[in-house]
Amino acid sequence: MTKKKITAIYPGSFDPVTNGHIDIIKRSIKIFSKVIPAILVNPEKKPLFTVEERLYLLKDACKDLEGVEPVFFDGLLVDAAKKYGATVVIRGIRAVSDYEYELQMALMNRSLYEELETLFLVPAQEYSFLSSRLVKDVYGAGGDIKNFVTPLVAEKLREKFNR
Ligand SMILES: Nc1ncnc2c1ncn2[C@@H]1O[C@H](COP(=O)(O)OP(=O)(O)O)[C@@H](O)[C@H]1O
Ligand SMILES: [Mg+2]
């Protein structure tokens, strides 16, 4: 595939980054010359990891992916897109249940910044049930999550939960 000389932004909480996020990032960088996974503050969520920890884990997960440059942005997605010169927003859709909220956000972002296109990507089926929430819940309840996250995320989870 010839890559588009377009920068795409992939916003999220990444609390923490999972193999589902990484799957979406890898698909995105096949299409676009630059992909910016961007940690944004979601006021509806109470994060387990600090912004610094999340960025550290996200950077580690992307270290071998050329053209992928994770950032933290304190503000609106549309302002992050402008700052980094992104004209496409990537979001992952796992199930129909993701769609309603994603549609609402895409339309809101478009009304704030007309030139910004939202692109929905679908992960490999094996990740279609995976979420940061589930990783934290399963780990917190004593489950094994090593197939769902990077070794560094697994290590940081161990520290957070004092295992
Ligand atoms: N397992 C997964 N497969 C595909 N997309 C995913 C997966 N987990 C999360 N995503 C997508 O990644 C993006 C960021 O998700 P998340 O970190 O939960 O932040 P947010 O707070 O914006 O939902 C969202 O578009 C979400 O749908
Ligand atoms: Mg989410």
Provide tags for this entry.
five-stranded parallel sheet, 20% strand, 163 residues, 42% helix, 6 helices, binds magnesium ion, alpha/beta, single chain, Rossmann fold, binds adenosine-5'-diphosphate
Protein model, in words:
This protein is α/β, with parallel strands linked by helices. It has a single domain (4-128), classed as Rossmann fold, CATH 3.40.50.620. It is built from 6 helices and 5 strands. The protein has helices at residues 19-31, 51-61, 77-84, 96-112, 132-140, 151-160, and strands spanning 4-12, 32-40, 71-73, 86-92, 117-121. A 5-stranded parallel sheet has the order 3-2-1-4-5, sandwiched between helices. Strand 4 (86-92), helix 4 (96-112) and strand 5 (117-121) form a beta-alpha-beta unit. The longest helix has 17 residues, at 96-112. It is globular and about 45 Å long. It starts with a strand and ends with a helix. The relative contact order is 0.20. Bound molecules: adenosine-5'-diphosphate and magnesium ion. Adenosine-5'-diphosphate is lined by residues 12-14, 18, 20-21, 24, 42, 45, 91-92, 94, 98, 123, 127, 130-132.
CATH H level, superfamily name: HUPs
**Count of DSSP helices?**
6
Order of helices and strands: EHEHEHEHEHH
| Number of beta-strand segments | 5
Q: List unreliable stretches of 5+ residues.
A: none
Bound molecules: adenosine-5'-diphosphate, magnesium ion
CATH fold label? Rossmann fold
Helix content: 40-55%
Shape: globular
CATH class: Alpha Beta
Strand content: 15-25%
Estimated radius of gyration: 15 Å
The overall number of domains is 1
Task: Return the CATH architecture.
Answer: 3-Layer(aba) Sandwich
Structural class: alpha/beta
What's the main sheet like?
A: 5 strands, parallel
Distance between the termini: 44 Å
With strands numbered from the N-terminus, the spatial order across the biggest sheet is 3-2-1-4-5
Average pLDDT score = 96
